[in-house]
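Hey, quick one: can you model this chain's 3D structure?
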Amino acid sequence: MRFERLRIQGLRCLDDVAVELAEGIHVFVGPNGAGKTSVLEAAYLLSHGRSFRSGAREALLQRGARALSVFAEMRVGDARTRLGLGREGTRWDARLDGQDVPLGQLVQACAVVCFEPGSHALIAGSAEERRRFLDWGVFHVEHGFLGAWRRYQRALKQRNALLRTGVVGPEALYAPWEHELDEMATAIDDYRRTYLDRLIPALSASAQFLLPELGPLTLRYKRGWAEGQGLSELLADQRGRDLARGHTTAGAHRADWSLSFEHAPLREHLSRGQEKLTALSCLLAQADLHAECRGEWPVVCLDDLASELDLAHQTAVVERLGAVGAQVLVTGTECPLPLQSRPHRLFHVEQGQIRPLL
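Sure thing. Here's the predicted structure for all 358 residues.
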């Protein structure tokens, strides 16, 4: 899977730019604030429907612009696919091969993983970050997951609306939504467990590759409600507490997972650098599993690689990605040292403009 062309309009400082891409490694260099990261952000938007950067969605729009759009031509196997994502006001519009499609269908057609300065939040941040990582991976390999997730979100929204009224109400108001939450949460939990079981071997190999000094790892998964108890029964039991809080406090939307190592059993034992490498291990493992299931590696984005990893780990990652033939997009104020002796395409980014150098 690789991009052949990427066109970006109205995204942050990128007014109207187009980039021709090929196989292998592409390096975008330039001063801070030039728009390098926004190139990766555009690719990520097509694959996730959101940015990897924190902050309000309004910040995506170029100052003074009313709309933004990202268009890509992508090769998947022997087929070419055209993807488009646009936003005007608060509405996102997705197109696939010239047809209007739901955002989920667009995201399913494009796979991009990104390692960037905030990636350590996957290890040190909130459970929401880890659920997003997990569910994106499940979504791309389990076709039934999206339908179950949508039904779960609809039922959750309805129950939360009832809770916010502050009125206990008759059993008949709550029971249908709690039954639906139970059924869909069980399906989602099964999808997640199956995915994690398949991910663990790749994750162990990836962590051993980047963090051999920490020893073997263990992954712990919490489904979001007590083991051995049906969710509908639990929700009925704790309805009074949920009424007081105004939202549903148990279910698949509360799931989490964590990693521990033989020589670092607690997250607090990891340095910031080790948190980053652990997050990178997760991303590489997810990409590896995606390739195993779908036949091709996703596009890999590495934002500010030289600042995020030391030279030895930069070299290791570059060699790994080169060996599997992934298309890689890298940013930096200058070309990272391990790439200077490897084949790559070089682009200069300045004041929102992109110019090919090599």
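One thing worth noting: Residues 171-210 form the longest helix (40 residues).
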